[in-house]
Structures are given as structure tokens and as C-alpha cells.
Specification:
TIM Barrel; binds zinc ion; Urease, subunit C, domain 1; 406 residues; four-stranded parallel beta sheet
């Protein structure tokens, strides 16, 4: 696989493709790409004619928009699974952590992930890498950055969030963060207690305080992504009107129906919990806890099916950087979890391409004439072989284009 600069005039003939929303598999299609932008999508193979006009012609099996990982922590390295190694990683200076984040963004792009949403880091490294990734030929996935999140003092989330207190402090902090954060991260609950098989702590914010975060973010033109699991936290998230629920373990159908009605997206992040279940020796989990993990994953899969049936907007996000969750590679894992849960392959493709771009307010959430050519070529149709997602043939990163061009 190579991330490829786009020739000035590229004609790409494919057997089938996915536009970000739906599949097109009724015969060959020719994409005409000029100066990094899709100018035409025509049925049939027009390669010979375009070749005669001096276009560079390429061919392949299956094209889809560049993959999106809607939940990563670039400055964390998911590969080490030893607790001491992970703790030592976090103790490094900002320069070393920034270098780790660059490596994460490069590895993501190599896996066909052209855009990641960084869900928070304490140092603002995500903002730095966002800027570097925009430079032409950076070799990195583009970054949508949540900067530094907000949390309560002495509660979970110190590696990615700052403390806020009363309403005035919430409003002031969110307003300041919104100046350079693409979204505001709200740490609403802690993490799951796997030994107990439940979220055991109380939400960090009540509905009024969470609503204050949302109102301040929306007033500044920013969406809110809420780190949230467990019934109590989910109730607060929906009541407060956040824009996406991250993780959302212990989901229920009533909450899903309210999410659908409010157009509230869900990023279920199976990966970190699935790793703990698949490799219990990495943490030293007991048989009882492994049983809890399986129960949690099965319940999560059932709720994902319910969400799909209800029409909740679903986002593929891996929590890459968590133990055992490797940047880039994890996107195919998470999509596999979607399919194992019973979702159609196209629903998993949508959750990893068009759905996150639409949620982020991208002007071009689908591959269509006028859109920047940010795409991945696969060697086979993922509906026939899902593993083909792990071996992208070509990756075209987001081109640097003037904003006003049409
Ligand atoms: Zn996270």
C-alpha cells in the first residue's frame, strides 16, 4: 500500500464502489479526477478514451471514500500491552509524545484512514498534529481535534481533560477551548469496572451542568462529544443534548429512540473492550471478569443492532491508543465487530465514511462530482471479503485544495 499524490488528470475505472452512503455495483464506473477533485463519475469503462486524451488511467476492484476513525487518541500508542510500558509512555516529555502522535497519524493513513477525530489529550498535541497533517505531502491522516476535554476535579480523564467547576467556570473554559478545538469533549462518566461488570461511579455532571457545557459549545459553533457509559450517564447525555455519545456501554432501547429523534450520533468503540476479552492475560483478568467482558460485548452488539434498526447515526471509532488498539489497523477490527453484531457490511462502510463526515458537517460527505478525491482502492468488494479492508491497494489522502474552488 502507498499513499499517493494525485496526478493532475487521473481516470480511475473500478468494478464497484461505495459513495459514503450507498453501494454502486451495477457495472464498471469511471471516475475523472482533475487537480484533486472529482469532476465526473460515469457508468462504463471510459479508460481508453481518456487515455487517448492524455489522462493517467488506473483500474481496480472497489473504491470507497477514505476511512474515518471517529475516536482516537493520537498521543497514545495502542501497541504496548504491558502496564509498565504504557505508564512509562505517558511520563515522556511533550516532544516524545508529539512524535508518537505523528507516527499514529502516519500509520492511520497507511491503513486507509484519511481522517481521524482525536478525542482529547492533555497537552494539545492533537492540535499540533492537525496543523502538520494539513501540509501537502504530510503522509498523515487529517485530524479533527477535540483538544483538551472538560471534567470534574479528582475524577476520571486527567490524561485528556481539564477541570471545570461552577457554571461560570464551565462557560469560560468551553468558550476558551472552542477557539481552537473542532469539538468539545465532555467527560461525563468514568470507565467500566470490568470486575463488577458495570459502571460503578456517579456521572461527573448532572443534566443542568452538562447542558451548560452543550449550550456554551453550541454558542461557539462547536459540537459536543460525550465520553459516557452506564444508564445514569446516558440519561444525562441525552437530557443535555450532546451531539455524540462515545462508548455508550450499557445502552438501552429507550435511550436509542431518544438519540434517533435528536439526531444524536453513537460511537460504540468495541475495540478496547474486545481486546480485554480476547487477551485477558495482558491485564490478568479472572475467568469471572472475562465472563463479564463477554456479556458486556454481547449486550453492546445487541444494542448496536437495535440502533441500526431504529436509524441512529452510527460512527466507527476505535479508541485507538487504548491498550491493544492500534492506530489505523483497528478500524477494520471495529467494522468487523459491527458485522459480527449483525449489521450489513454497507452499514459498517457508511459508519466509517459518509456518516462521520456528515456528522462533522463536511461539505462533501460523499464521493460525488465536486468532492475532493479522498479515497481508498480495495482489491475486492468488502461485502464478499471483509478482510480486504486490511490490505488497501491504494490510498489517496485528502488533497490540499483552495476552499472556494468548486
Ligand atoms: Zn477515548
Amino acid at each position: 500500500m502507498t499513499a499517493t499524490a494525485i496526478p493532475a488528470r487521473l481516470a480511475l475505472v473500478v468494478d464497484a464502489w461505495f459513495d459514503g452512503e450507498k453501494r454502486h455495483a451495477d457495472g464498471r464506473t469511471t471516475f475523472s479526477v482533475e487537480d484533486g477533485r472529482v469532476v465526473a463519475i460515469d457508468s462504463g469503462d471510459h479508460g481508453a478514451a481518456l487515455d487517448a486524451q492524455g489522462w493517467r488511467v488506473e483500474r481496480g476492484a472497489f473504491l470507497l471514500p477514505g476511512l474515518v476513525d471517529a475516536h482516537v487518541h493520537l498521543f497514545l500508542d495502542g501497541a504496548p500491552t504491558d502496564g509498565a510500558v504504557r505508564a512509562a509512555h505517558l511520563k515522556q516529555g511533550v516532544d516524545a509524545l508529539t512524535e508518537a502522535a505523528r507516527a499514529s497519524a502516519r500509520q492511520s493513513l497507511a491503513c486507509g484512514v484519511t481522517l481521524v477525530r482525536d478525542a482529547g489529550d492533555r497537552h494539545g498535541i492533537n492540535h499540533v498534529v492537525r496543523g502538520e497533517a494539513r501540509r501537502p505531502g504530510s503522509g498523515m491522516a487529517q485530524v479533527r481535534s477535540a483538544g483538551l476535554g472538560v471534567k470534574r476535579a479528582k475524577r476520571y480523564g486527567a490524561f485528556m481533560a481539564m477541570d471545570v467547576d461552577d457554571e461560570a467556570s464551565i462557560r469560560g473554559s468551553v468558550q476558551r477551548l472552542a477557539a481552537d478545538s473542532d469539538e468539545i469533549k465532555l467527560i461525563l462518566t468514568g470507565i467500566i469496572d470490568f470486575d463488577a461488570g458495570a459502571v460503578t461511579d456517579e456521572p461527573q455532571f448532572d443534566a443542568a451542568a452538562a447542558r451548560c457545557v452543550v449550550d456554551a459549545a453550541h454558542a461557539a459553533g462547536r459540537k459536543v462529544l460525550a465520553h459516557c457509559s452506564g444508564a445514569k450517564g446516558l440519561a444525562v447525555a441525552v437530557e443535555a443534548g450532546v451531539d455524540s455519545i462515545e462508548h455508550g456501554f450499557f445502552m438501552d432501547r429507550t435511550t436509542l429512540a431518544r438519540m434517533r429523534d435528536a439526531d444524536l450520533a453513537w460511537t460504540p468503540t468495541f475495540c478496547p473492550v474486545h481486546f480485554q476479552w480476547a487477551e485477558p492475560s495482558a491485564v490478568g483478568w479472572s475467568a469471572n471478569t472475562v465472563g463479564n467482558l463477554r456479556c458486556i460485548l454481547d449486550g453492546h452488539g445487541e444494542m448496536l443492532r437495535a440502533a441500526h434498526a431504529l436509524g441512529v447515526r452510527l460512527l466507527v471509532g476505535t479508541d485507538a491508543g487504548s491498550m491493544g488498539v492500534e492506530h489505523g489497523h483497528a478500524v477494520a477490527d471495529e467494522m468487523q465487530r459491527f458485522v459480527e453484531a449483525g449489521l450489513p457490511v454497507d452499514a459498517a462502510l457508511r459508519a466509517a465514511t459518509g456518516a462521520p463526515r456528515a456528522h462533522f458537517g463536511d461539505a462533501h460527505p460523499r464521493l460525488a462530482p465536486g468532492a475532493p478525491f479522498e479515497a481508498v482502492l480495495l482489491g475486492a468488494d468488502p461485502a464478499r471479503d471483509l478482510q480486504t479492508l486490511r490490505r488497501p491497494v491504494r490510498v489517496w489522502p485528502a488533497p490540499s485544495l483552495p476552499e472556494a474552488a468548486a
